[in-house]
Every structure is written in C-alpha cells, then in structure tokens.
Amino acid sequence: MGNLCSACFGDSRSESSDNFDQHPTERSRLLGADIIPQNEEPTPHNYHALSQLREQETLKRIVQRTADNLIDISSTRMLDRIQDEHAAQRAHEYSALVKECQPQLAKFTPKNTARIPSVEEAKDKIPRLLATGTIKREDIDQISEIMEQVKTAVLEMRVQQVGDIVVPMVVSV
After folding, report:
1. What is the C-alpha end-to-end distance of the chain, expressed in Å?
2. What is the mean pLDDT of the chain?
C-alpha cells in the first residue's frame, strides 16, 4: 500500500529490485519488487511458494553483495614490514631532499628563531608598539605576564629521541 500511496502523490522514485541493488536506501524494499501484479489477487497455494522463492533469491543476493564487500583484515597483518635497510634508504632519501630544499626553506624561516627576547627587552618595546592609547595599562601588564609564562615554558621544553622517523616526500619542480 505504501508503494501505491507514494505513486499517487507523485513520488517518482523507483523501488524495484534493480534500484535496490544499485543504491539501497532506507526506503528501498529489502526483498525487492512484487512478482505478482497489484491488480491481480494471488492464489493461496501459489503465493506462499513465490514469496519463499523471492525471499531466498534476495537473501542470496544480499549475502553475495556482503561477501563481495568484505575486507579480510587477517591478510593485512601478513604485509611485508619495512626492512631496516629499506628504512635507512628512505631516511637517506629524506635527508637528501631536505638538504636540496634547504635554500628554498631559508626564505620562509625567520633568522632569529633561536633567540627569545627577555621580558625586560619586550617591556621596553610594548609601550612603543602600543602607543595608540587604546590599550589599558592592565592589558599591557597581562600581556607582559603571558610573555613571561611563554618564555618559561619554551625554556623548560625538553625533546627526547624516539627513533627514526620515515616521512615520504616528493618535490615537484
């Protein structure tokens, strides 16, 4: 009856089994279209056999489609691991690419990244930079305090060696 009502109200979507195979949606019929035309009454002995046959065929299609889309995750564990010499070769290639790109990267890297100005130096510059008079003294003090915290955090930062990192890189010229 839902099929009839949607047809009466101008729903042009086809809900045939072919449409289900191509793009199943929540509105698609799970068991496909009716074999018996809607204007004919099914005979009691014939209807049950046709319904079972249609259900079995549709379930076989669903099982086959599921088997086709199945990903065997156990086979992914069998993939070859990167051998040490291969990893060393890739690390060497990466180092060569970085050395090749170094002159180009130097344009984008600030010259004084290693030197962090002291808070005293920054305090002298803040009033000159913010001399417009629109920033309150409390805000300037808060900025100075935050700068001190950032400087402390950067100075206390520690980096540990965690091993080789292999990064694929392609330079397009």
Report:
1. 64
2. 69
pTM surpassing 0.85? no
Asked whether the beta carbons of 61 and 18 are under 8 A apart, the reply is: no
Residues 127/140, Cβ–Cβ less than 8 Å: yes
Measure the CA–CA gap between 92 and 99, rounded to whole angstroms. Answer: 11
User: Taking Cα atoms as reference points, which of 60, 70, 68 lies closest to residue 17?
Assistant: 60
Instruction: Give yes or no for a contact between 126 and 42, defined as CB atoms under 8 angstroms apart.
Output: no
Q: Which pair of structure tokens corresponds to residue 54?
A: 């249609």
The residues near 15 (Cβ < 8 Å, ≥ 6 apart) are 3, 6, 27, 28, 29, 33
Confidence check: pLDDT of 57 > 90: yes
pLDDT of residue 79: 52
Q: What Rg do the C-alpha atoms of the chain give, in angstroms?
A: 35
To which residue do tokens 């009691």 refer? Answer: 44
Query: Which tokens sit at 46?
Result: 């014939």
Query: Which residues have CB under 8 Å from 90's CB, separation 6+?
Result: 82, 166, 168
